[in-house]
Every structure is written in C-alpha cells, then in structure tokens.
Amino acid sequence: EAGVAQSPRYKIIEKRQSVAFWCNPISGHATLYWYQQILGQGPKLLIQFQNNGVVDDSQLPKDRFSAERLKGVDSTLKIQPAKLEDSAVYLCASSPGLASSYNEQFFGPGTRLTVL
Amino acid sequence: AQSVTQLDSHVSVSEGTPVLLRCNYSSSYSPSLFWYVQHPNKGLQLLLKYTSAATLVKGINGFEAEFKKSETSFHLTKPSAHMSDAAEYFCVVTPTGANNLFFGTGTRLTVIP
After folding, report:
1. Do the beta carbons of residue A25 and residue A96 sit within 8 Å?
2. pLDDT tens digits, A4-26
3. Which pLDDT band, with edges at 50, 70 and 90, does B1 fall under?
C-alpha cells in the first residue's frame, strides 16, 4: 500500500515570498491533516479535513496560511507571505473513516521549509 | 486541556540494555495516548496506542507502554535495545474519540554499540 506522499521535500524561500505544499493521502482515506513541526518541538495541528470539508482550523494562522482539499483527495497548503518563524517541517497525515482517535493517522515524510 | 510532558529530551542506552522513555500527561477528559517514532527523513510511525482498554499496551518492534492513571504516566519500555531503535520518540494525547493529537516535545534515543 502506498503511503502519504508530499512534495516538495525541501523548499528555501525569502521572507515575504509565497510557497505551496502538496499532499496526496493514502487512497480511500477520508480524513486529512496538516501539521507544523518547528525544530525541537512536537508537531502541531494546523488544519483537518474530512473529505473536502474543514473540521478544525482553529490553529491555522488564517492571515497568511490557507489550505484546500478539492474533490476530497489531494490537498495543498499555502503560505503567503512567509515569515522567518514559518521555518519548519510541514507534515501531512491521513486516516481512514471519520476523524477519531480510534483511527490511526498515517504520516508523510514532510516538507522542510526554510525562510531566509 | 490536553498536554504531555516528556521528561527526557535525550536518552542514551547500550545495545541490548533496557529502554525507558518517560511521559506524563494532563487531560480534562478520558485520554487516548499514543507513542510515535520518527526516524530521520521518514514519516512518523505509530508504535502503540491506549484507548481505554487494557492498561498494558504492546506495540511494534517489542515496545510496550503502561497506562497508570494514578500517576498520569504512559512510559514506553523495551527489554533490549537494538541499533535500529535510534530515533525520535513522541508521546501524544487526545481525548478518547477525538483526534486532535497533542504531541510532546520528543525524546531522542541514542543506542550505543
């Protein structure tokens, strides 16, 4: 079974530029998550989709971050404009069925963003 | 509110000796608890989870953890460390039935040959 795919794996940009990350979840997984992992910290949930609807985006800095999951499959996360403090690894995860602690989340390898 | 505290940022053990990674949690609700492992340049992988069933949970690769409500702990153990166990380990909590995962800051495990 193919895992969660993310691209690009690495990205370096200057502050105030924009950047987009792409995630392809495991086939058939209804729920998709984006996490931000700052160096030395654990991942923090940014946004959660169930199919193509947003379940929770309370931790997403909406003035600069946006995400969409068109057609309930792939998802993109965008930052515009980027700040230095956005330097982090952005992780995508997916889980089957409804959003629940009973359903394991499967993580992709992440995109490492460096903002200069 | 939910949170976890991983008591050690770095643990070093010799190959073949026991592993103990400590985790304390705080939760306003009945918690589900997890341990994830992160190898360099790889995605997070679930080791084991507790969701209000048996308090001693067995996971992959010989790891296990015991949920102790009186101590609000969920420590991860393994009887004998292997070189391939070297990685970052995260303790995670969420209210049972929910799925907002709250990660600890991680414990880096080094295995010395």
Report:
1. no
2. 999 999 999 999 999 999 999 99
3. confident
Residues of A in contact with B95 (CB under 8 A): 101
- Are residues B43 and A43, on separate chains, in Cβ contact within 8 Å? no
Contacts of B105 in chain A (CB under 8 A): 40-42
Verify whether the Cβ–Cβ distance A109 to B46 is below 8 Å.
no
Query: Token match 């995860």: residue?
Result: A93
Question: How far is A93 from chain B, CA to nearest CA, in Å?
Answer: 9
The pLDDT tens digits of the residues spanning B66-110 come to 999 999 999 999 999 999 999 999 999 987 777 778 999 999 999
